[in-house]
Amino acid sequence: MKPETKFRRAVVKLAKSFGIEAACEDYMGGLDSRTRKAWKTFILKSDKAELPQGFAPALEQLNNETFEGIHAMTGLPCRIEMAVRVMKLDGRYFNFKDATLIPRS
After folding, report:
1. pLDDT given for residue 92 in this prediction
2. 25 — phi, psi (to 5°)?
3. Choosing a second label site near 38 at 20 to 30 A (CA), which of 72, 79, 82, 102?
4. What is the span of the domain harbouring residue 30?
5. How many Å apart are CA 72 and CA 58, to the nearest integer?
6. Residue-wise DSSP of 42-102
7. What is the mean pLDDT of residues 22-39?
8. 104: helix, coil or strand?
């Protein structure tokens, strides 16, 4: 299973444990070829207007995990940092950083 799939499933499972019906979808990604470090960000979409207490710190802890993988083109090992950095709650978009929701203008 790809690391991205594992991460998305872990985020959805965490959301369900807090009573949130949510979807976790790809948002942006990139690769630094010198350090072989990849990053991928995701958007969490939910119809809820607010997050339950304790969900943001738990999600931020999940965001701090780094996955080891193999680059598809080179076959060399690489590190993949994945995080939910955008949320769509009840139709409004927020940036998510350091367990804090920042409204987008």
Report:
1. 93
2. -125, 160
3. 102
4. 3-103
5. 31
6. EEEEES-SSPPTTHHHHHHHHHT-EEEEE-TTT--EEEEEEEEEEEEETTEEEEEETTEEE
7. 86
8. coil
Question: How far, in Å, CA of 26 to CA of 18, rounded?
Answer: 22
DSSP string computed for 42-56: EEEEES-SSPPTTHH
Burial class for 65, CB neighbours closer than 10 Å (0-12, 13-18, 19+): middle
Yes or no: say if 92 and 101 are a contact pair by the CB < 8 Å rule.
no
pLDDT digits (tens, 9 = 90+) for 68-96: 877 777 888 888 899 999 999 999 999 99
Q: Tokens standing for 81? A: 């940092």
Look at residue 105 and tell me whether its pLDDT is greater than 80. no
Rg of the Cα trace of the chain? 14
Comparing 4 with 18, which gets the higher pLDDT? 18
Domain count, the chain: 1
